[in-house]
Amino acid sequence: MKRIIFFLLFSTLFAKNIPFSVGEKFTYEFRFNIFKAGTASLEITDMDTIDGAPTYKIQFIATTDSWGNFVFPIRDTVSIWIDQNLLATRKIAKNINEGNYHKVTQTHIYTDKGFAISNQDTVFISSAVQDPYSLFYILRTFALRVGDNYHFTTIDGKKLTDIHLELEKKTRIKVVQQWWNCLKVRPFRSDGQALKNLGEMAIWFSDDANKYPVRIKIKLKYGALTLNVLDINSTNAPHH
Fold first, then answer.
1. pLDDT for position 117
2. Which of 119, 83, 91 is closest to 104 using CA atoms?
3. Of residues 204, 160, 165, the one with CA closest to residue 181
4. Euclidean distance between the first and final Cα of the chain, in Å?
5. In this predicted model, what pLDDT tens digit does every residue of 178-202 receive, in sequence order?
6. CB pairs under 8 A, 24+ apart, for 90-95?
7. Which residues, other chains included, contact 4 with Cβ-Cβ below 8 Å and sequence gap of 6+?
8. Which end of the chain is more exposed for a tag (fewer CB within 10 A), N or C?
9. How far is 228 from 210, CA to CA, in rounded Å?
10. Nearest CA to 137 among 66, 58, 191, 78?
11. How far apart are CA 114 and CA 4, in angstroms?
């Protein structure tokens, strides 16, 4: 089992193998079952400093369109700051508006001190933690191979979850109007229980040096939510 602590100990290697930079942006359409529900984006917007550590600021925005607004309106903005050396999460700011559900959270993570503060709650941590969005980036720095397994601890508010990620297979998929050679990654909880909202998740990374997350699929209790990449703004973006 490859554990994240091994990679943190050799974090200086990341500097030579990071396939992303400020300005990289993925634009997705997201569908609920067969219906297009809206668009989302995942972007490295800036560099910043958190508690003296240089970080990448990453922003995820999801917005439903007319059909999605009628069924279940979404206006979500999530900003995260990940350490440029360790690629561990340093700070999370979430503004979630989904239907009648509204929540704003601020989480500051102090890995060296062994705790995080989420709004007014203290969460004790024993090592570096990730959030779901930072996982997309740290995985892209690894030499992904079918059969590999990785272990992480994720943080969401005051909740910590131990998860494994399994490199299932190589595959070729059509995303919108484009064909991609991909590596399929499946995350699951270490205790065998379903992920949030009783769902199962899969991520398809492009099978190349950039490892773009071109498709994300979440199976929910009453259907499936799929994000398919529409556009990639990156100096390394390939032509397919």
1. 97
2. 119
3. 204
4. 34
5. 999 999 999 888 776 655 543 578 9
6. 90/50, 90/51, 90/53, 90/55, 91/50, 91/55, 92/131, 92/155
7. 127, 128, 130, 138, 150, 151, 152, 153
8. N
9. 17
10. 58
11. 16
Q: Which amino acid is at 48?
A: D
Which tokens in the block code for residue 161? 């979850």
**Residue 174, amino acid:** K
CB 192, CB 166: distance < 8 Å = no
| Percent of the chain topping pLDDT 90 | 63
Taking only the tens place, the pLDDT of each residue in 34-48 is 889 999 999 999 999
The residue with tokens 């634009």 is 27
Q: Is the pLDDT of residue 8 over 50?
A: no
Count of residues for the chain? 240
- Contact between 101 and 78 under an 8 Å Cβ cutoff? The reply is no
